[in-house]
User: Fold these one by one.
Assistant:
Number 1:
Amino acid sequence: MKKTRVRFAPSPTGPLHMGGVRTALYNYLIAKKNGGDFILRIEDTDSHRFVPGTEEYIIESLRWCGIVPDEGLDASGKLAEVADERNPHAPYRQSQRRAIYRKYAEQLVESGNAYYAFDSAEELEKARADAESAGQTFIYNASTRGGLKNSLTLPAEEVQKLLAERTDWTVRFCMPSDEMVEMDDKIRGHIEVNTSTLDDKVLWKRADELPTYHLANIVDDHLMEISDVIRGEEWLPSLPLHYLLYKAFGWERPHFAHLPLLLKPVGNGKLSKRDGDKMGFPVFPLKWTAPDGTVSRGYREDGYFPDAFVNLLAMLGWNPGTEQELFSMDELVQAFSLEKVGRSGAKFNPEKAKWFNKEYLRKRSDAELAALWMPELASHGVSASEDMVREVVALIKERATFVSDFWGIAWYLFQAPEEYVEKDVTKFWKAENVAMAREALQATASALEMEEYIRAREWPMGKVMNCIRLAFTGSGSGLGIADIMRFIGREEALLRFHRAEERLL
Ligand code: GLU
């Protein structure tokens, strides 16, 4: 059997959307499951849409997720430019492979599957406008190419002359007329499309001596021996052309699988960056600062763990068929299959995303979480021992979704409150309860003793405790009194109580 070789082939036209990371992940899982290779290739033949910094962003995003390419990166982690044992197909950046593509474009012209087109931008614009005023849509294919300026309509000498003189010609695919293209997709099943609905796509441009996406993609997938093309549904309309290109070259076709879209949390339609901004969740793996300075939030910077992010992405479109929701990367490799990827779009649920992170936070050791939290504690001027921080983490981690929640949950274990929540003061700080609380605190040495003291006197436990908690935390909510006292100590507890008395009575 042929070795499984899959590729992730993003264009550096902007930061990777979470849908793009999911595509990379599914490719990676299929490669690993089958003992195959996962290849990273950058498709940057459309220079107009190039956005600086995105290639680095893509590489860093994959690295953060633990999606490690078998081919495509050099030892320093950059896109490989020189072929070696590990990267036999380098360079993996299409703009550096331009010398390769022209001969394939010409091969197609020679075999009659493509032709040279000399129509200028203005001429094409006019053809479009003419069709429109006749109530039609212009399409460059068998129905019109006979009346346009190309090597099929012009005399041979004229063609040679134009090829030599002009620098704006293109090579177009000669789409057969009225032919059924029959395709198979691992997710969508059997698909048929009539070629009359398709146009003679530009494959190569003299202007920048570069192929378009379609040609470069097919040539590279062939040269890189790709066995399975797994990509987003937005590429499905290109599939007939890709089938026909493989046929025209006489090459063996890879298998195809088009992944369902990621949909908005509410309503219909594709998940967009604007949904994230509106509803307050990230759509990008990492924070991204666009060349114009606009900043988009990222899962990493929002405090998501990479394994939680990978897990939640895996579940967007794939259904393991069991109740299990938590999967490590290794478990995903075992369990994942394209057969269990649905056809319909996967609705993104930001609350569920948080749930995943909460689960992964709970799974992490107290020591690891403490280490992650230490820098924030230091920024608040807290100098606590690692042991203490670890103990606090053990106490609070069940209540948190992100490490960044820790401070909000437990700051009063490190600092005395400066303010008291007014409505809680009105509710809990009643003179008779304060008197009981004071006596209980002063007369006992520990929280346990204090509770016994209150119980023995049949004082209202809840009311007294709420009073004490208000003094300790500045509000009526927080951890148990015993836990708070364990961390702050009796002396600090008394101090806080007296301070509250001074300020509140
Ligand atoms: N360069 C295309 C993209 O940006 C790749 C599509 C494909 O995988 O064939 O998504």
Note: The chain has four domains: 5-92+261-314, 97-259, 364-409, 422-504.
Number 2:
Amino acid sequence: MKYSVVVPTLNERGNIVRLLEAIEAALPGDYEVIVVDEHSPDGTLEVVREYAQTHPRVRGESNPGVRGLSPSIVHGFNLAAGEILCCMDGDLQHDAKDLAGLLRTAEEHDFVVGSRYVEGGGFAEKWNPCRVLVSRTATFLAHWLLGVQVRDPMSGFFAIRREAYLSVRERLNPRGFKIMLELLWLLKQTPGNWRVTEYGITFGLRHYGRSKLSGRVIWQYLTMLYTLRRQRQP
Ligand code: GDD
Ligand code: MN
């Protein structure tokens, strides 16, 4: 299997089928999609499983472990069979057309960050000043405390080669939203000539439902930064 696309969901019933259709239209051949749902009360998982009956590349799973976006993605990656593991949001804010480009870039790399801040990337709507401030501060902290080089360390849209994932998996302690940053950081601490790059993506509008980014998620991010920073190799 070439590609595994993992999609975390929490109450995305109104978005998920459109996303699955868009992925199917954007990707040729050899791939699987694993939706990892957080026991969504709106019945997201049931909708996915019904879709999967006629679309064998798709499967719906339930997050069995600690609640959260990052643990769900790790669960999905652990089930995945692909050579390249990729993660995208289930609310249509990540574009399936960008997915195809991201995966193409992953042919030549070990880690590809879907980035809003490089050429070809951007936002479909203007964010409110509060969200801009939160995002910029979070990005600044990642650069400052962890020294990661990428322009968009906050992204939730990325691809990682299986081998790179396996080399850091044992050290993961996923919590909150920022699994991409944790993987990137751990890989940076792992010997190897890892080829990391960014690929421009457009962060779209949420059409249905609402964001689950909360004060708790922000707190989880700050504690994660603290823990990762303490693990830094001299
Ligand atoms: N399984 C699972 N468990 N899925 C979750 C959970 C959870 O606890 N919380 C959220 N999700 C799913 C949502 O259903 C959606 O598919 C995706 O994860 C992203 O969640 P949103 O609530 O839409 O987050 P956002 O749009 O505010 O944040 C996104 O953009 C940020 C960039 O500004 C995410 O991609 C972030 O990772 C990213 O940093
Ligand atoms: Mn979203």
Note: The radius of gyration is 17 Å.
